[in-house]
Amino acid sequence: MKKIVKFGVIPLLIITIGLMVYNYPRLNIITGFAAKSVCSCTFEAGRDLASIEAGDNDINPVYYAKNVVNEEEKSVTSTVFGLKKRKAIYKQGVGCVLLPEDYKNIDFKPNRKISNKKLPFPYGNLAQKDTLFFNINYQVLQNAVDKAFDKKGEQLKRTRAVVVIYKNQIVAEKYSSGFNKDTKLLGWSMTKSITNGVLGILEKQGKINVNQTNLFPEWKQDNRAKITLNNLLQMNSGLEWVEDYNNISDVTKMLFLADDMTEIQLNKPLVNESNNSWNYSSGTTNLLSRFIRNQFQTHQEYLDFWYNELIDKIGMDSMIIETDNSGNYVGSSYAWATARDWAKFGLLYLHNGNWNGEQLLNSSWVHYSKTPTNGSNGEYGAQFWLNAGGVYPNVPRDLFSCNGYQGQHVFIIPSKDLVVVRFGLAENPLFNIDQFLREVTSAIQ
Q: Do 254 and 282 contact (CB within 8 A), yes or no?
């Protein structure tokens, strides 16, 4: 018989105090993550609190947070042991905004005007399999998709959605319980590739070029003035940055403490040589959002441009890019859309920037976006991840992708005419990307 160990009140109190002391410096980040996550999942994705806490917020130590949803105000308040209360509030058009710790009044910047125009998908009906492709083994393909989802007795893969598009048609699609084709999903760092798209449109319009310098007036008195737009896009600027989500770092302070997320990287010193020091940085992408803002006379023009010239143009009707409390798009992390709408973005790049006959991006921009940056070992281009270095050895080397935290992906494989979307809560190697994509691509002869 196993002996049952019973803890007394004092040991439990000691453990509780120990946890509080260890986590106290991080409490405002923990409650900030919790409030923002619950707010967006509730008011953007339409999910219930129980599923959010059991899924998205089941991360240690975020699961210590107690979350209260205010349906009337459209807000969420989170605390840990009654400490470090943080609040996120929803506003239609810009999503959920995490308010500063010491906020007194809620002061939203100009809101985005929502378009009611719904564009049809230009490559046939994306909602169904219109064409039977005789070079696809549909049983092999469906088996590959099914294996991406959880089964009893196997290591959890925590996949939520898979969409496979071949020659502009859905050939396989599956969702886990509680999710469907209309569920908005957070792309996390896949949003960086959206930022690339906005800059690509500005480049096509002749308003910017990747070799320009003197990007910000704050840099004009020092060597940062020599940093090029290309250096920022390729995350090879040499600016100081620490991207660590497990500790208090530049990225966690930016996402969960900053009022203006575009300022954090802007104020960092140059610590390495530009173009020779690749360093993944979400701060850099939000700095790019600031650069985009500086191209417009008014804030409203900046807010509308992302939709008018890109998102609405390709019919990503479900997409919302959330802002920080200063009204800047969080271009590093906060885009929400259905899996099918994320697939449309992949198709734009699969077709070298052409959408139904309209060239939204120069084909040279797409080529540039998937050109390896110095120091990345062929893994990174300009706000896109690459397989040029063979990180997925059994997948075509021409694959490039939008990748996000916890395993969000839009894979683009030109040699196979494929776009593969996968959303979930487990990433490589827990979810074996190489095996998944190898099995998907093997179904196409």
A: yes
